[in-house]
Design a protein that fits this description.
Elements lengths: L1 H22 L9 E3 L11 E5 L5 E3 L8 E6 L4 H17 L5 E6 L5 H10 L6 E2 L5 H5 L8 E5 L5 E6 L4 H8 L4
């Protein structure tokens, strides 16, 4: 009888530990909303709400009157890794002109992996969550990453770059929105 009780208690303890490890380390649910249809050049950019990796709420429309670059990326994306330092340099150069850069992570939730990736490529601009790909869908982004969206001060999509950018391409599309 004692062994049966000890066995049940041991099994219950193992089950509790297993369940706890499944939920620890996961971020709290991230509330993402998107309004405004699909992104098209010349139209108002779909508005969205999400949060940065440190939990700060973000709404795209809060940056109206500033030029915005949305860079869709993922930790497994090698071209993303290659182009992000160029975008960081542009962010540093043009922040005095109001440039806002948001790195929209494509369907990942591991904060530690995302932060490690951003440290590796030395990126300082904010990264935001898009765990279910709602923002990406509104901007026509699927697994073909990176995708960069240039939005002018009036909130209009000026250009959508599919694939990795060179510095020449980046500068060419930054100038009209600055």
């Amino acid at each position: 009888m004692r062994f049966r009780i000890l066995g049940v208690l041991l099994l219950a303890g193992v089950l509790i530990v297993f369940i706890a490890t499944q939920f620890l380390g996961r971020p709290a649910p991230i509330n993402v909303t998107v309004q405004g249809g699909r992104a098209t050049v010349g139209a108002t950019a779909p508005d969205f709400t999400t949060q940065t990796l440190d939990g700060t709420p973000v709404r795209l429309s809060q940056y109206r009157s500033k030029p915005v670059v949305l860079n869709f990326w993922a930790t497994w994306c090698v071209p993303c890794q290659d182009e992000m330092p160029l975008i960081q340099r542009a962010s540093d150069i043009y922040k005095g002109q109001g440039l806002i850069v948001l790195a929209v992570n494509y369907q990942q939730t591991s904060t530690s992996s995302m932060k490690a990736f951003l440290r590796k490529v030395d990126v300082k601009f904010p990264a935001v969550y898009d765990p279910a790909g709602q923002i990406a869908a509104a901007y026509g982004v699927n697994v073909g990453l990176p995708v960069t969206v240039f939005i002018d001060r009036f909130g209009k999509v000026n250009f959508i770059q599919v694939g990795q950018m060179s510095n020449v391409i980046l500068q060419q599309h930054l100038q009209p929105i600055l």
